[in-house]
Amino acid sequence: QVQLVESGGGLVQAGGSLRLSCAASGRTYSTYAYGMGWFRQAPEKEREVVAALNGNGGRVFYADSVKGRFTISRDNAKSTVDLQMNGLKPEDTAVYYCAARLGGLYVAVKESEYNYWGQGTQVTVSS
User: Fold this and answer.
1) Percent above pLDDT 90 for the chain
2) Helix (H) or strand (E) holding 37
3) Is 33 helix (H, G, I), strand (E, B) or coil?
4) Most exposed residue of 61, 62, 74, 75, measured as fewest CB within 10 angstroms of its CB?
5) DSSP state of 103
6) At 123, is the secondary structure helix, strand, or coil?
7) How far, in Å, CA of 110 to CA of 17, rounded?
8) What is the pLDDT of residues 11-34, one digit of tens each?
């Protein structure tokens, strides 16, 4: 089993920044073997991928809506994955989830490809 715990959500004004962090742990967790991703779900909308990367962080994906504003990174020594969010907009308001998948070679962007999920952290951007 793999446990994921997110932190760093909160309320921010439009144009501001937040940094989300996801700490991974578990008996079977091995950093390079797991691809990681950040997803979000706004009220009355489906969960969507925001950013993802492969096991060694060499391959990265960003949704078009966040390109140039968000940066995903991982520190395998600490078993953490961060999402730096700059230039936040009201439409970024959502619950953000960290996800992990066994298989670190390529970047997965589909929700169904991920095996483990965090509990989510709320991000609210006021206009």
Assistant:
1) 85
2) strand 34-41
3) helix
4) 75
5) B
6) strand
7) 26
8) 999 999 999 999 999 877 777 889
Residue-wise burial string across 53-87, b where 16 or more C-beta atoms lie within 10 A, e elsewhere: bbbebeeebbbeebeeebebebebeebbbbbbbee
Cβ within 8 Å of residue 112, ≥6 positions away = none
Q: Which of 41, 94, 50, 54 is nearest to 69 (CA)?
A: 50
Q: Closest Cα partner for 41 from 92, 90, 95, 79?
A: 95
Q: Are 96 and 120 contacting, i.e. CB atoms less than 8 angstroms apart? A: yes
**How many Å apart are CA 63 and CA 48, to the nearest integer?**
9
